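[job 0412] stage=fold_complex status=start
inputs:
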Amino acid sequence: DAGVIQSPRHEVTEMGQEVTLRCKPISGHNSLFWYRQTMMRGLELLIYFNNNVPIDDSGMPEDRFSAKMPNASFSTLKIQPSEPRDSAVYFCASTWLGGELFFGEGSRLTVL
Amino acid sequence: QKEVEQNSGPLSVPEGAIASLNCTYSDRVSQSFFWYRQYSGKSPELIMSIYSNGDKEDGRFTAQLNKASQYVSLLIRDSQPSDSATYLCAVNTGGGADGLTFGKGTHLIIQP
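[job 0412] stage=fold_complex status=done
writing structure:
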């Protein structure tokens, strides 16, 4: 299996622009998670989906952030408008029935 | 609010010695506990999971859990330079595929 696939790996954008991060979970996994990692705050859970349904989005920082999972093999995390404080590494991870959590390589976002 | 606390380090250990990493958690109903290793610029990878009180050994790694004290530890025997990384403690309160709460990690340096 190719593992969890994220794109883009690196994104540099200007404040106010829309950013869309993409994730393809491991085939057969039914849970998908979006995390954000910074030096100051560590790994923070933003939102997770079970069977494509958002279960808990309490970690989403504010209304500028939104996430969708239209089908079992694809999810997006969108930031609109982006701000410099959104600069971080965003990880997508997937699992099957609460088993081992597999992470993608991450998307490093820099907002200027 | 669920909290997972770790000493950020760096923890410096001579090659061949035992490295001891510690973690405390705040939520008493936590059921599942994990140790992830993260190399610089890479994604976290699972190295150990533990669910019941006591010790669990896997090769050079031993995880220890004490639910009464809300304490988890990871021992690395015969430390190697390749063990140099950040070690993240993660806790899951639910039995299902709820998101993991991560500590900020301990930076471990194995000195040759």
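[job 0412] summary: The interface with chain A takes residues 32, 34, 42-46, 49, 88, 90, 92, 94-105 of chain B (CB under 8 Å).
[job 0412] exit 0
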